[in-house]
Structures are given as C-alpha cells and as structure tokens.
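task queued by scheduler; priority normal; single chain, no ligands, no partner chains; default sampling; output format set to structure tokens
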Amino acid sequence: MTTSDQGTASQRQKAAPAVLVLEDGRTFRGRAYGAVGVTFGEAVFSTGMTGYQETLTDPSYHRQVVVMTAPHIGNTGINDEDMESRKIWVAGYVVRDPARVPSNWRSRRSLDEELDRQGVVGISGVDTRALTRHLRERGAMRVGIFSGNALPDEGTMLAEVRQAPEMKGASLYEEVATEEAYVVPAIGEKKFTVAAVDLGIKGMTPHRMAERGIEVHVLPATATAEDIYAVEPDGVFFSNGPGDPERAEHPVALMRAVLERRTPLFGICFGNQILGRALGFGTYKLKYGHRGINQPVQDRTTGKVEVTAHNHGFAVDAPLDQVSETPYGRAEVSHVCLNDQVVEGLQLLDQPAFSVQYHPEAAAGPHDAAYLFDRFTSLMNTAQMEGQRA
C-alpha cells in the first residue's frame, strides 16, 4: 500500500522531512529515504547485520515495513546478482544511518536509488533501537511512513494508519507467486524432479536444489494436484510466503493431496505452517515474530544447534514433547527455537514428509541448515529405491 512522488536522487538528498506513525500513536521523525510519499504496512524488525538486498526482495515481506536494527545500512550498495525475486516487496524501509557512498566491487547503484526507482517509501535518521524496543514490548503493529514537504497533521496520519488492513487474516501468497510455471534445470547430472509450489519462493531455494542434481518445476500457487503430478515429481516442495496461514485453504488442500499419495515432501516457512494445518494443528500470530539471520534453533533429531535465518510472524501450535496422531500417521516437532520455544520444524514418522519454519537456503547466510536439502534428496532416493524393489 504505497504511493510515491517522482523525483531525482538529488532532490531526495535534500532530505525531505519524514514521519513514522505507529497505530498506538507513537511517532518518530526523520528524513525521506528512497521514494518520497506515503506507505502503510505492518511494522516489523530484522536483526540481520548483512543481507539487506535479500531481505528487501524476499516476497515474504510483502506488505511489511521493515525496521533494520543494524545502524549502518546500504554500505555495499545494490548489485544485480543477489535479488531473491523480481522486485522489492517490502512496503516501507526504516534505517538509522544510511551509507553516504556505497563501496563494493559488485555495486551498481546505491540502495537509496534502488528504493526510489522501485517506488519504495522509506525513512532514515530514526532511532531504530528505540523503535525496535517499542515493537518488542508492544508487538508488531500497523504503521505509516509519510514524507514530503506537505505532511498532514499527526491526528490525520494516525487515523490513516488505523484504517490500513491488518496482517492477521490477510491472504497474500497469490499476490507474490508466479503466474506461469517455469523450470530451474539441475546443475550437472539430473537425479530428481521436484514440483515446487510457489507461495512466495526465493530464487536461492530452487538453486540450492539444482546444486544437488534436482530439476525444479516451479508452479503457481493456484496449481492443482493434477498439475503437480503432471511433471512426474520425485518430491514436492512448498515454499515460504506472506500472510496468515489460516487463509491458505487451497495450499492446505493441495498438501493433503500430496500426503495422501505419500510423495516425499519438504516445506519451508509458510510451507511449514501449511504442513501444520494439513496435519490438523492450529497456527497463531507471534507477538513480534522472528526476523534476521542470527536465530538459534535446535534440530531435535540430532541435538545439533544451528544459527539460522528467519522471517515469520506466524507459527504452528503443536505439542513440543509428544508424538501426535494425525490422519497421515504420527508427527512430531523436529526443530525448536531456543529463544522462545516456538515450533521451528515438523516431521512425519510414518511417511517421508518434513518442514522447517526458517530459511535453510539463506543466501546471505548463515548456512548451518543447508543439510536439510540433503535430507530431502535422501528421502527421494529412498523412495526411488523402494519403488524399484516393488
């Protein structure tokens, strides 16, 4: 929900005034960063010190205004290789001290210029530490950024923020998914074929699978079970994506169709929530979510603790310390966040299906969880061998 005024970089650098208004009435004043105009979304914070380009282009951030907790943003500029999707998806961007001059051998333009080029309204010069503490105490909430020389009064701005739609109850995955199916070929020898349901997929995800000899058929969110099995998949993948999983009725029904056929299945982030719902668990909105590249998660199947990349505001409500009976066999929580004991992964014990709430593809790092793609290939390899014996 963004409107922006057209203007040159030099005009923006004159530091038009800007105001950030939270729905509880708290305001922060700063300077325009990126496009000048008005935008609304859900205020969330990301704790990553690097990887801002990957964050901006992650479709899971659709309709969210991202507050960067790291004080210096834009130091390495913008390049043409690290985009996770076709565009910037964040609704707005909040930084403390933007880089004056980017410095990196791959940089093609400044972050400020790229935000302006794509019409993304931002604000700089904000005390992001105070803003983050406020969101941690009060929870993620609606927010507006207003910039330009003709700002409304605070009462008007607050009224507009409170009229913006909330994230809870929002169905957004179809807005970010591909409209046409496409194929990412295997790198080297082709070993498997995977049908990937795009709910907001990041570009690095099919690449991580292609590195392992997987040909990935990326399908629209509206795909049917017939579309999935038309590609003769060895496995099925459900991607990350934005919005409330309680509104994802079609993906849940689609996953149940895959579970009924016992095809090896892997889900990430939104895909984890879809698996949870498909198994009969509920989902709920976290107070302020997990976002950043430094979240500790324990893989309960091995006892190993991983530093992981996250971006989720919803979670699965499943029992942590017991095996649950589901329509598709026994299920258990396989991963848990060590900060707050939130469910970070599920696995079925009687068929080849599992999911994680975080991002093992993690283009900006860390790469502790990359083994999960190997776990997926292992499930497909086992299924192939069992099929040959049958």
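post-processing summary
- The two ends are 54 Å apart (CA to CA).
- The longest helix spans residues 371-389.
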